[in-house]
Every structure is written in C-alpha cells, then in structure tokens.
Amino acid sequence: MASGTKPTMAVIADRKDAKKLSFAKARYITRGNPRSGGLASVYQAMDTDSGDTVALKIFRAGAGIDTVIEESFRREVQALSDLRHPNIVRILDSGRDEDNDAHFITMEWVEQDLRAVAEKERFSDWAEYYGAVGKGVLDALVFAHSRSTVHRDIKPSNVLVTDDGAVKLCDFGISKIRNFLAPGVTLAQFASAPYAPPEQDDGSYSYSRDVFAFAALSTVMLSGQSLDSHAKLLNALEDIPVDEPVRQVLRRSLSLDVPSARPTNAIVLLSELERAAPVAPLAALPVVLLALTQRVRGIVEYDMALKGDLAEKFVERDLGQVRGEDVPPQPGKDGRSIRLYGNKYRYTAVRSEGGNQLRLVDAVEFPPSEIDKQRAFCCDLSVRLSFVGASAQQSSQAIEGLLERLATFAGDQKLRKLEQREQLLYKTWLDLLSAKTELERTRKLRLAYEKRDAKGEYLALTLRHDPADTTIAEQDVAIDAGGAHQFKGSVVSVDGRVVLIRPSERNRVSLDDLPEQGFVETDTSKTDSALDKQKIAVEAVRFGRSVNPDLGKHIVNPEQAEVPPAVDVDFIQEDIDEDKKDAVLAAMAGPALMLVEGPPGTGKTTFITELVLQTLRAQPSARVLLTSQTHVALDNSLERIVKQSNGSINAVRIGQKENERIADSTRNLLLDAKLPELRKTALASGRAFMDQWAAARGLQPQDIRRAMGLERHAVLKTRLEAVDAELRALEPKLTDDHRRELDAEARAELDDKYQGMVRERDELERDLKESIKDLALYVESKHDLKEFAECSAEDLRGWAEAYSDGTSSGMQLKALMLAHADWEARFGRSREFQAAVIASSQVVAGTCLGVMSAPGSNVITYDLCIVDEASIATPTEALVPLSRARRTILVGDSRQLSPFQDPELRTQGLLERFGLKVEDQKATLFNHLREGLPPELHKTLTTQHRMLPAIGNLVSGCFYGSALKSVEREPDQGLAGVVKKPVMWYSTSALPDRASRRVGTSYVNDVEVEFIVNLLNRVDFLLQKGKTNGKQASVAVLTGYGAQRKQLHTAIQTKRHAWNSYSEIYVNVVDAFQGREADMVVFSVTRSELQGLGFLREMERINVALSRGKEFLAIVGDHYYCQTAHGADNPLKDVIDYIRRNPGDCGLEELSR
Strand 498-503 to strand 458-463: parallel, antiparallel, or no bridges (unpaired)? Predict the structure, then answer.
C-alpha cells in the first residue's frame, strides 16, 4: 500500500491521537505516530508546498549518542544525495529545525516494506523471488558498491515496496558511520540479526557484509519463517526452494568464519547468481516468411550441391541466428533493401509486393572470420526466418516489426559511433597510462652487490659491476632481507661501484639483517601507486562512478555544460579587481565545471581565496578540496585563505612532514601536526576526569597515576604487538608477484591499509617512549622504571593491580583505568579517525595525487574542488581530485608550461606500440576544456599586479597579445637605481668566447656564468654601499639547461658568503620555478652558435622565465643568435623586437672585454 492507498480506520485513529509536528517553518506537517528505527524516527508527513505525502525522518538526540546522531545525519544526506537509482529511495530535502532541535530528511513516501509483503505471500521458487524482490535489491547494491558506498544494514524493514511492486532500498544512514566518532560508542547496538555477519566491521570486508545480508534476506523471504540467529538461518538455507547452483552461491555468501570466502561485493554476487540461476525459457520468436529468387537458389544449389527443398532448409539453418542492417539508398533504385547475415552467406532481401514475404535476391559467400566481423556490427532482428510457419498477416506484422527495429538500430548506431568517438578520449588517456606503466617496468633495475657496509645511518653497497650506464642515482631502492621482509631506502650518491643509500622513514629492517651479498632493485611502488590512482579516477569518471556522475559527459562534451543563472555576492577582500569579481560570481553560480585562466601576476591566489571564503560563507558545512600540481602555489593559496579568515577556517594540509617542499607557513596544518594536538587535548581531559573521580572517593593521586601509567603502557605494548603482527601478515601481499594479480583499485586499497598500519606502528613506538617518561614522574626507583620498560604487558597489568586500592572504589577504578588505557592506545591512531579529522575540515589541501594518499580519500566527497596550476597537470592527474567532487574549478594558464613529456616513451617505441602521438603527451584537460566550454564558464584574469609595469607590459605584448593590463605602481625604492632599466638584455654577441658547449645531452655557456656572477656582485655592492641603505632582495637565476644550472650554482655558491644583500638566491631550471616569484630574475639563454633553438623555441618556457621577476628582469645571452636563428617558432626574437621598440623601459647592452 503506497501513498495513494486509502487509510484504514486504525490508521485514521492513530493519526487523530498523535501529536502533530511541524518542520522547516511549517512546510512539513507530520501525520500519526512514527516508525522508530535505530537512529531516527520516520513520520508520514505532508509537504504543504506541493501537497505531496513524504517521509520525514527525524534524528532524535539521545543521551550518550549525540555525536553519532550528528554524523549519521550528515552522512545519510550525503549518501542518499549521491545515490540516484530507481531501486534506492530518493531524497527530497534536508536540514536542521531549530524549533524542534533536530535534523530532518524528507524522502519519497512508501507505505509498506518487505515485512508486509512476507506476511501476505510466500515465494514459490528463486525465479519468483528474484524477479519480484532480489533483482531490485541487488541492482541497488551493485550501484552503491560501484560508488564506494556500503549499506551495512540490509533487512526487510529497509526494503520498501511501492504500489506497483517496485522495491526500493532505504536507510543508507548507517553506511558510513564509524565507531571512532566518540570513545566507547559503537554501532553494535544498531546491527540487525541475523542479517549482519558475526565479524567486527573493521573495514576489511565491508562490501561482503552486504553480500551476507542479501543472502540472509533471500533465505528469510524464501523460507517464510522468522529467523533470529545464524544457526537457524543456515538450517533454513538447506530447505528453501532453490536449485542447487543458487544454493551454493548463497551458502558461500553466508560464510560465518571465513569472510573472504564470500563474493567480494554485489557486482561479483550478481555475476555468480546470473550464472547459477536457471535461464527462463525464451518466448517464441515471430516468423517472417521467405521466398528465394532463382539467382539465390542457383547459388546455394551450386555451392552446396543441394536440390529442391534441401536448398530452402539450408537457408533456414544458415539464417537461424540472423543479424541484419539496412542497405543505404542507391541512386536510380526504388524501395528498401536489407542485408541479412547468416553463418555462410550475406543475403540481400527486399519486401515482396504483397508485403508478407522477404525475397532473397542475392547471396555472397564470405570467409567465416569476415562474416563474423560483419555480424558483430549488425542488429539482432529477433525473428525466425522460414518458408512456412506463419500466416500472411502474421508474417507481414513481423516484417513491420523487423523494419522498425532496423530503423531504431540505425539511430542507435549513430549515437553509438558518437559514443565511440567520445570514449576515444578516455582510451587515449588510459593508453598513455599503460605506456607509462610499461616504461616503469622497463626502467626497473636489478644490480648485484658483493659487499655491504654500514656508514653511520647509511648503507654502502659495493656493486659487482660499474653502474655507469644505469640511472640508479636518486632512485628509491629495495633489498630482500629474507622471508617477506624488505629493506627500503633512497640512493644518495653513486661513486664508481659504491652506492650510498639512506634508509627510508618507513624502513623497519636493520642494516645488520641484510645479506652480505645480494641484489638491490629500484623500487617503483610510489610510481605504480600514482599510476593506479589515475587509472581508478579515469574509470570512475568514464563510467559515471565519480561523485558527480555527469562529470564524464561534461568532459567529453564541454560545449553542452549547463550555465547556471547569475548570482550576486558581497565581496570579502577589499580592492578586488573587476575581472576577478566576474570570475568569482560565475563560480558562485554553481556550475559543475568551470575554467579560469590566470596569466602571470593576475591574482590567481586572490581569486581562489575569495572563492573559498565565499563558498564557506554561503555554506559553512561545505567541504572544499584545494589542489595544485605545485606545492608552492598550493601553500600560497592555503596560507592566504587561513590568514584572510583570521584563522576561523578549519583547514588540513595533506602531505608528508619530511617533504621539504611544503612551506613552513602551512606545516602546522599537516595532519601529522594536528593529530598530536587533538590527542593531547582529549587525553588530558580523560586523565583529569580520572583524577577527579579518584579524589572524590579518597584514593591516593600518586598511586592512581602510577597505576594508570602502567595500565596505559601495557595497552600500548599490546596494541604494538597486534599492529606488528598485522604488518607481518600484510608483507607477503606487497610483493610484485602478488600485486600484479590485483586490479588498480585493490592495489590502492592494499597500499592504503599498509601505510596506515605503518603510521600507527611508528606512533605507538613514539608513545611508548613518552609513556616511560610519564611513568618516571611517579616511580622513584630507576631499577623499577627499567623493569617496567622491559617487562611484558601481562606483568605490567600485574604491577598496576598491585598499586591499585583494594576497596570497592578501587576495583571500580581499575575497570575504569583499563577502559581508559585501551581508549588512549587507540584514540586518534586509526585511519578511520584520521579520515574523520579530514572529513570534518572545511578546506582540505594537497597536490593532485597527494590528496588520494589521505585516509578515507576514496569515500570522502567534496562540494567544490579547485585545481590550481591545472595547465601543467596531465588529464589523468587532474581527474584524481575531480572524481571526488560535485563541482570543479580549474585554474591555470595555457601559455605557460605543459605537463612533463618523458622522451623515453617515444625513443623506446611505446607511443607507437600503444597507438599514441607525441601531442597526446602534451595534452591537458585544461586546454581540452578551454576549447569547448561556453564563454560564461571560461573566464580570464587580465589585471596584472606582481610585475613592475615595464616587465608586465613586455610579458603582455610578447605572450598575451597585449591583453594584460598592468596596475601602475612605483618601483621598490630600496631597489630603484640599482640597474639602468627594469628590463635589460645583456648581449654576449660581441664576445669572442660567447659560444656554448655541449655536456652530455645538455649545454653550458661559461661566459654567461661569468657575467651573471659579476652582475650579482655589482648589484650587491650597490645595495650595500649605495643609497638603498642595506636593502635585501630575492633573486632567481634561471636557465633552460641542467648542465648550465650546475655551473651557475657552483659559481654563485663560491661567492655567496660575500654577498649580504640577497635574502635568497634561487638557481634552477625554468620548469622548477613556475608558480614562484622573486624581486630580480636573471635568465641565462645559454645556447649560441648552434643550429636551432632547442628549448628556446618553446614560448611557454620563455614566458615562465621572463614573468617571475617583480622589480628587475635581466636576460643574458647572444641576442644576434636569438634574433637570426632559423625556425618559425622564435619567441626570443619577439622579445628583442619589443625591447628595441620600448627604449624607455627596456635596454639592450652589448658586452665587451
């Protein structure tokens, strides 16, 4: 009985007596008494806006479970909003009603659940049950599991049945709640017997819990009994009316002791049941009558040596599984022709004049392989072709149906071809990932060593052979240490045959445990993991499993992206430019996908900051994912956001604390930095409570604290032993052989679990040391303290009991201490707790791939994702964060550097092998969308603030068609007068030794190195001794060549001690400086007197090099060579021409000896 069913007198009486509640400012008015569930009460209610009957789910606050209620509400809204499927209850609205002090959700109303159906009827066999109930429930679970969502509470009351018999799964609220939300609170009280399996839900077999529950539900429904235990469930399974293959699948699904024996998830279960279930008999196909022309009869009789009706019987058999297609209209020929594909011949058929037969007018024999290929692209006609077996009218109707089917198929074929072209985009991206995976495999080195030595904390290996031709330097390596143990580290240096290795932070193998002789291998696990993350993201977006299921469509057809209505906001940052305001307003309108181009100095950070602040002001509970391809850009934005909000925004930075590229200004936001503070606060509160409890009962504080310390130390030891055991059990699964057997998602889950366990082990070891220090405060004897540090957990508990009070209060305290110590050992360590910290943050920041290393990354969803420096991310790198968000803003600059293109993909023939082009390596999602998104969703920032107008105008004129407008400002007075003009080209063209020389695959120019050192020396003198009065400046010395960078770095370091005017001198290649800035930039051209420009012909690289300086830009190189070098692409010629046209701001000075 559904919402339109007439209520009974009992229901009317119930409604009359019940107190009416109103929610959402009286929009929803309840009727009758509620249905109470584990976490909420469900009322039938009226939506006064629409007049519809809805289900109003109210989350009540009960003592002790407030946090569970809060999390349950937020997660159920999220789960239901993301799961849109015909067999899942649809959410209509949600919110918090302050008058009732409760949260609510409104959903479509369905009167009855599966319990009511079971009371009225019993299913006679599997086919009847599966068709009426099972298939709908399983389809809903397949959909949810494919989107990383687990139900965890499948039972008859959570399966609703509509008036027309459709089943709808409800109550996903329990699916993502974890017992880390509040100490001592678990979900055990909400589990439902016998539908929940017996093992603890620790995340290991979450999907198989739903498999178990589905099998239990099916058994209960088919048995017609009320089963309240697992034993009764298994007994009933043997008696239900199903065929044995189905029973075997259900039996495995109900495995109590071995969860891994169950089908992994609903997708696997569906596949197994469809193989096991008996196939329903097919309905008889309509018959189309055939007629043979003499031509076709002659061909068949001749080829097959058949006569008379034997030829007709052969044709019937040949067309037994017929497939067909329309023949395209031909000039001069009337009527419609059809091609019919049999197993041997391709026939041409036309409709007879009477319309009740298909006349076969031609037959062409094809090789079996060719005709199979043709059949694969044709329509299944779903008719039986015969010379008898139907009346003329029946055959005529069947032909009409056949022609209609062909017309529909032809239309579908057009869409299918369009889809194939669309999917080619994803195929290209996946093929590129496969090529990179293969490249990493070929790069893997295995080198024999004949000696090992410990050099302090480092490991020195003497290789058997000189590794001169290998690239082991600066690589991660691994050494088998016996069993499943591996030593892991990074190569620091290679000197002849001696390789020096620094053990990694996560290494647990002692140097002494390594074999004297053995093999050292390059460790590609980090790269493999990064590629796996990208493959998972591509597949999720491609097949609609991303958080925004329409994201894939938007990417394939960006021109069809919906433009939402404009909105208006009050801007938070003062003096924000109009171009940035325009971009913020477009983003705040809520488009699913948007692109913002931010040329150098135009304020991408300002735009991002305003957008994040506006988003959180409009929706404080929103979660924003802030990502970038560079740590510099990411930390700049995150620092500005936190500062602009006066620290009120709850932000977390994802990254490793040992990563030197993370800015000091955001290190306090790292998860590793936040967790200790959270633990410290929580533990202090718990200990204070214990002290108060003991003091109120007259117990001695010193003894209590000592006993607490011993109990805590015992629990820490026990937990460490358990974690070590779990890690040992995991290690065999981390081998290359085992990993190759797993798909990308399973490998990612394995890595995630292992990393979480390693992190917890490291924290436990640190806390054990701290625990001993705490004990020292309450233990006077050093001998006792030493014994406590070395004795077992069991002995520690014995000591704790010895120090405890023997009174009844003391016994109660002992129980409290045990519970508190166990809670302390676990609190804040689990991956689930860390995931909760991240999920509760308003802003989560990390690199595109780094964010997916965070705990819970595969289940946490985001309302908004911002990808900065998106123009240097590959499409698959960008898809990693995009796949986790409801909407995305890409920020970048198509005229700056593109993603790294590994030349070995081409030189090793991998591009050709995987059908890829060189351009595929350079492609970005940013440029793809830039070419397709509607103008309203493609904004460009044009107001430039960073560079002095003299520099900004050069960059605008040479690289942006003069579209950028630099804000007028005075030069920094501390640097004014140090150089002649803000833009200077110091030309080496007249110097006899100006030529560059080749070093390996790179280039060096000694005369440029010499001049740059002298230039820095001169500027330092002027800053120190001149009118600037000790002004300090930051300097970036950039080049396009690695060998020149080394030469410059060495030369500058020898003089660095004498220069006091520079706060920082950054010497590097151009690519490493994108997203950064400096007061002065010196660009070393390097190449001279060579054929071709090499890197210098790349506009994007030159643009980055010349747009980093705020006050002064110096270019050092052979200007005549740059101006006259052959080639259509020569951005430096444009720069020289601009300098000559603008002598007021720019200068060109020829150097001489």
Answer: antiparallel
